[in-house]
Amino acid sequence: MQGRRAISMLNSVLWDQGISKANKKNIYNTVLKSRTENMLLATEMDYWRRSAGKSKREQITNDRVREIMGAEHTIVDDIRTKQLIWFGHVQRMPGHRIPKQILPWTPRGRNKRGRPRRSWREGVDKELENREMTDDLWLNREEWRLCIGKRRRTF
Question: Which residue stretches does the UniProt record annotate as biased composition, category Basic residues (predicted)?
């Protein structure tokens, strides 16, 4: 039900013909993927365990299974890296571009009771803090890419 609520709040953005399909896909990826991290991790580990031929009954840690299969990063790590790549890209855009204008936007409406959910921007800020990166590092594209672990293509 929460997914439907998020989609209904984004209704005006989704129906806007001025916003490209690529930007709408980015919104989908950031909104819906961030809410399903645990399910993604569980599915990923189920895949790696089956691929390695290891059962949960064998009590092998997830890290050991990843080591056996040669999986260096989790899918959530990959998603967070992609979010940082996109964040830096949007921050370097000129101010008249729609993604640049949407990034600081907060939807209006009432919040549910209890602890508020973490916003996409708060997630990016937390990831920057975890990686010990400064917020203005995005100004230098090469340094930004090196810090987030994305190497430049050489072909």
Answer: 109-118
Tokens of 141: 């594209």
Distances from the Cα of 48 to the Cα of 22, 35, 44, angstroms: 31, 22, 6
The number of domains in the chain is 1
* 0.90 surpassed by pTM: no
Could you tell me if 135 and 128 are in contact, meaning their C-beta atoms sit under 8 angstroms apart?
yes
Query: From CA 73, how far away is CA 84, in angstroms rounded?
Result: 15
- Give the amino acid at 75: I
Q: Supply angle C-alpha 73, 68, 38, rounded to 5.
A: 40
* Least confident segment among 68-72, 90-94, 115-119: 115-119
Q: Contact at 8 Å (CB) between 14 and 28?
A: no
Q: In Å, how far are 29, 90, 101 from 97, measured between CA atoms?
A: 20, 9, 7
In a domain, 91, yes or no: yes
Residues 6+ positions from 51 with CB-CB distance below 8 Å: 69
